[in-house]
TrEMBL record:
InterPro entries noted in UniProt: SAM-dependent_MTases_sf
Highest taxon above the source species: Bacteria
Gene3D superfamilies cross-referenced by the UniProt entry: Vaccinia Virus protein VP39
Organism for this UniProt entry: Nonomuraea guangzhouensis
Region (Disordered): 1-21
Protein's recorded name: Methyltransferase domain-containing protein
């Protein structure tokens, strides 16, 4: 099977090298967001209840895939957000 063919079990085009890494990361991000959506929504709602004002800036240390960072950005729309992760 060459790089422009598709597999019935894996319907998108085959990828190699950096493309394969990008596809794998995109799939991981989608799964991460789907699995954690409810939890992160509840967590950010709880964080919002801890104060009577919205934060001006949020620093997300160890942000990983960024799913939590995006949940914070959706909840605290007026806050500036910095995400930092040192994984390679």
């Amino acid at each position: 099977m060459n790089s422009s063919e598709t597999s019935p079990a894996h319907p998108h085009q085959n990828h190699s090298g950096a493309d394969a890494d990008a596809v794998a990361m995109a799939e991981l991000l989608e799964l991460d967001a789907e699995v954690l959506r409810t939890y992160l929504s509840e967590l950010t709602d709880w964080l919002g209840e801890l104060s009577d004002r919205e934060p001006g800036h949020i620093v997300d240390l160890g942000s990983g895939t960024g799913t939590g960072t995006l949940a914070l950005a959706r909840r605290f729309t007026q806050a500036g957000i910095t995400a930092l992760d040192l994984s390679s």
